[in-house]
Amino acid sequence: MSESNAGISGPRKKRKVKMWLSIVGGLMILGMILQFCEKREHDANQAEANRVADSTARELAAQTARHDSLMRTDKVYADSVRVADKRRDDSLAAKQRQDSIEAIERDRRDNPENHVDVDFNWRTGGFGSVALGTIRFHNKSLKTCVNPVLLVTFYSENGTELSQRKEAVYVTIPPGKKKKSDELNLGFINRQAARAGAKLLSATWE
User: Fold this and answer.
1) DSSP-based three-state secondary structure for 130
2) Does the pLDDT at position 62 exceed 80?
3) Is-contact 132 196, C-beta < 8 A?
4) Residue 171, in any domain of the structure
5) Measured between alpha carbons, how far is 19 from 111 in angstroms, rounded to an integer?
6) Mean pLDDT of 115-134
7) The predicted structure's pLDDT at residue 126
8) Which residue in 37, 122, 182, 193 has a CA-CA distance of 20 to 30 Å to 162?
9) For residue 25, what are the CA distances in angstroms to 12, 18, 28, 39?
10) 139-174, pLDDT tens digit by residue?
11) CB count, 10 Å around CB of 85?
């Protein structure tokens, strides 16, 4: 019985092996066919893209040559081109100016501390040992500047920094306005102080 089964199973195994080999072979052939088709389609698309690019380049070269020829030989055409170019350039320049103005306006609104001019004048009192100063503010921002705080720096004649002092000035400067402080007592200073400057540190913005 076992010998008979063995004799039968052998041909069946061979048929199964042949069947799987034919399936695998068929799949490989199908894959090769698909790859060939894809490559042919890719090559056709690339050829079409190259043809379109070459055609576009030739058309552009022809248009450029015609334009250059007309610019040399046709005064009406040349004048119209120059007028159109000038209008385009003027429009671009106007847009750039407008963009610049809008950027400055945004900065005047968003960063008002950058748009306050501070003019500091001072003199000595107390036999040359005390600094007395007045501040002139010009608020160029779009917000009201309230109680600005300044950093006042004193220098010697050759520019050496001698001392610094923070000073709050209790004034209110509306947008676009100027304001002068009362004379401020800035305290004792080095007797060698010959120059001074002030810059805005902070303020309340409304």
Assistant:
1) strand
2) yes
3) no
4) yes
5) 81
6) 93
7) 81
8) 182
9) 20, 10, 5, 21
10) 999 999 999 999 999 999 999 999 999 999 999 999
11) 10
Reading the block at residue 186, the tokens are 């800035």
What does the block give as tokens for 95?
A: 């847009």
Separation of alpha carbons 120 and 118, rounded Å: 6
CATH classification at residue 197: 2.60.40
Q: Which residues contact 78 (CB under 8 A, 6 or more apart)?
A: 70, 71, 72
Tokens at 148, concatenated: 């600005």
Residue that is written with structure tokens 């007592």 in the block: 185
How many CB atoms are located within 10 Å of the residue 195 CB?
A: 13
What DSSP state is assigned to residue 141?
S
184 beta partners: 133
For residues 88, 92, 98 and 104, what is the CA-based torsion angle, rounded to 10 degrees?
-170
Looking at the predicted structure, is the pLDDT value of residue 8 above 60?
Answer: no
Number of independent structural domains in the chain: 1
Q: Which residues pair with 161 in a beta bridge?
A: 155
Report the b/e string of 145-162 with b at 16+ CB within 10 A: beebebebbbbeeeeeeb
Separation between Cα atoms, residue 196 and residue 122, nearest integer Å: 8
The 10s digit of each residue's pLDDT in 23-39 is 888 888 888 888 888 88
Domain that holds residue 194: 112-205
State how far the Cα of 89 lies from the Cα of 91, in Å rounded to an integer.
Answer: 5
Q: Is 178 among the domain residues?
A: yes
200 is a domain residue: yes
User: Which residue matches tokens 């000595």?
Assistant: 124
Instruction: State whether residue 148 is helix, strand or coil.
Output: strand
